[in-house]
Amino acid sequence: MSDDPPGVDLADHSELDFSTVDVTVSPDVEAEITRLLQENGLELDEQINTFVVCRKDGHLVGCAGFDRDVIKDVAVTPGLHGAAISLRLGSEVTKLAAARGYHDLFLYCRPDNAQRFRGWAFYPLVEIPDVIALMENNPVALAKYLEKLSRERHPGKAIGGVVLNANPFTLGHRFLVENAAKGCDWLHVFVVREEAAQFSYADRFRLVTEGLADIRNVTIHQGSKYIISRATFPGYFLKTRATIESSFTGIDLLMFREHIAPALGINRRYVGTEPFDATTNCYNASMKHWLADAPSTAAPIETVVIERLAVDGSPVSASKVRALLSAWDLRAIERLVPSTTLAFLEGQATPARDRKQGGW
Amino acid sequence: MDIVRNAIAGTLESGDVLVKVSPSEDGTLTVHIESEVIKQFGRQIRSTVMETIKALSIGAATVVVSDKGALDCVIKARVQAGLLRGAGATDLNWKVLG
């Protein structure tokens, strides 16, 4: 005779079994995960290869996908939500990520699930109502970053912001910043921190600093995980699809509007026209919407588009400089970059240069 | 003791607590506590956490405590484990830990 309260099967002690799978080599598991995600109104994210899966009696009952420090595609079999599976899953994900060296994690979820992930010790960062929410598990990092930024506040009516990847820094970047700085009392320049570019963050940052040294009303800031990073804008670093989902540009731009801009008093964001890069072009096009028109608790920020600098009738871009570099055409590069960048590029050993100099 | 690396201890399960420890960037001690029973036991949890940090002579660190209703002894053990891992400690002084 059982003492269990009615309706609760305390005899159900079947173990939860957790493991990690790479779905690119396990199509069967991928199919199972896809089904579980669909039951939860989610789609398998193509950027996610690694999943923590939870099985009960062999059946898949929970999954959580991650790409380094970014967690997505978390689902638990409907009906089991009340059970402890979700929290066990959260513990496993946290532990596994920590074992791989990722302690500060980001998480994407549907806004109506955000409360569940508060239980995973994740805190809301930014949200597009009814579409997507971004959370992180470090409750103090953003506040500390913003506090540091706010020490660089400058007085004035027109305070501008511009974000550069500067891969590498060209006369086009210089032109954009120069003109933006003319139009405002103070301009804050951010250098994308993510190490996904041909040139390292340290080199990119140094060349931006050197290339803008003579402009009086500019502060150059270190980038962070909160501004065009793999966490806030995963699509930017893939650039595989011509169009990226606008919800992801929205997350990054709302982060800027709601957190970064208020810390520095930024009320306008500058951007150059983008003739070549479809991802960046899409980002720029959606800027006005997310920074001003979209509903938000933060004040709107004006988007100012500046026509890109052209040399010999052709727009200057970093991608063109990289192409010329791989052909080791320094004479052509010289017309597109400041002397500081040129000096750096001359020191770059590339296969093309070696071929030309080695004469083989 | 100095916190030199990121570390975690504990779980998110009911009756347990997850402790995240990381080095301080600005040389300060930051302690963030969240608990499902913060209204009833918030003060007690905080004093357990702070005493444990103090007993190990930690001056600078970021400590994030996500409590799921753990008993005091569990909180103390998890905070100790997190801090000792974060300090890379191998030589344990059980007098201090007890």
Description:
The complex is a heterodimer of chains A (360) and B (98). Chain A is of the alpha/beta class and 360 residues long. Chain A contains 12 helices and 14 strands. Chain A has a 7-stranded mixed β-sheet with strand order 1-2-3-4-5-7-6. A 5-stranded parallel β-sheet of chain A has the order 10-9-8-11-12, with helices on both faces. Chain B has one domain (7-88): Ribosomal Protein S5, domain 2, CATH 3.30.230. Chain B has a 4-stranded mixed β-sheet with strand order 1-2-4-3, with helices on one face. In chain B, helix 1 crosses helix 2. The chains are: A alpha/beta (360), B alpha+beta (98). Chain A binds chain B through residues 84, 87-88, 90-91, 94-95, 98, 103-104, 119-121, 137-140, 144, and chain B through 6-8, 11-14, 18, 20, 22, 25-26, 30, 32, 34, 62, 64, 66, 68.
Q: Which labels suit this protein?
A:
heterodimer; A: 360 residues; alpha/beta; Aminopeptidase; Rossmann fold; 2 domains; 7-stranded mixed β-sheet; 5-stranded parallel β-sheet; 14 strands; globular; disordered N terminus; B: 98 residues; alpha+beta; Ribosomal Protein S5, domain 2; 4-stranded mixed β-sheet; 3 helices; 4 strands; 39% helix
Helix fraction bin of chain B:
25-40%
Measured as a percent range, the helix fraction of chain A is 25-40%
What amount of the residues of chain B lies in strands?
A: 15-25%
Taking pLDDT < 50 over at least 5 consecutive residues as the criterion, the unreliable ranges of chain A are 1-11, 239-243
Number of strands of chain A: 14
- How large a portion of the residues of chain A is in β-strands, by DSSP E? 15-25%
CATH class descriptor of chain B: Alpha Beta
Global shape of chain A:
globular
CATH structural fold name of the largest domain in chain A: Rossmann fold
Mean pLDDT of chain B, to the nearest integer, reads: 93
The residue-averaged pLDDT of chain A reads: 88
Strand order, sheet with most strands of chain B: 1-2-4-3
Distance between the termini of chain A: 88 Å
- How many domain units of chain A? 2
CATH architecture of chain B: 2-Layer Sandwich
